[in-house]
Amino acid sequence: MRFVVQRVKEASVTVDDEVIGKIGQGFLVLIGISDEDNEAIADKMVKKLASLRIFEDENGKTNLSLSDVNGGLLLISQFTLYADIRKGNRPSFIKAGKPESASPLYDYIIEKARTYVPDVQCGIFGAYMQVSLINDGPFTIWMDSDDL
To answer: What's the pTM?
Structure first.
């Protein structure tokens, strides 16, 4: 499982010209799921995500978590995080999770995140989406379940 975590001042996701999710300060998280992922891995990833201390405290140190700043989460499924570009110029996505297993796991991640964060917004699995954000810093972190 892979998360790209972006600390944002605001972020939104639009589908068919309609904003379906929007947050102020918080994290925009792009979520890649492989066929090897499961709920136990999702639990570890979401717990780590909710615990990240990457907001600045009164001394300018990245010492505050999402809950400390009452931040929101915008969770977006993105199978392209599993793109393999080692051969040729057209990416292969064979390592990305198949929709029949990845979609329920994405829903699980959303529900698990809601146990940590009151304001959780999300995109639509498999939909064509436009994502807008103001990256704060910029501050972006790559989380891979292989590293936990």
So the answer is: 0.96
What confidence score (pLDDT) does residue 69 get? 97
Q: Catalytic annotation on 79?
A: yes
Q: What are all long-range contacts of 125-130, with beta carbons under 8 Å and residues at least 24 apart?
A: 125/77, 125/99, 126/77, 126/99, 127/15, 128/15, 129/13, 129/14, 129/15, 129/76, 130/13, 130/14, 130/15
User: What letter does residue 97 receive in the DSSP assignment?
Assistant: P
What is the spatial distance between Cα 52 and Cα 119, in angstroms, rounded to a whole number? 16
Query: Mean of the pLDDT values across residues 125-138?
Result: 97
Tell me which of 3, 79, 121, 125 is the catalytic residue: 79
Q: Is 115 a catalytic residue?
A: no
CATH class of 2-147: alpha beta
Which residues are CB-neighbours of 49 under 8 A, at least 6 positions away?
A: 3, 5, 27, 29, 73, 113, 143
- Per DSSP, the three-state class of 64 is strand
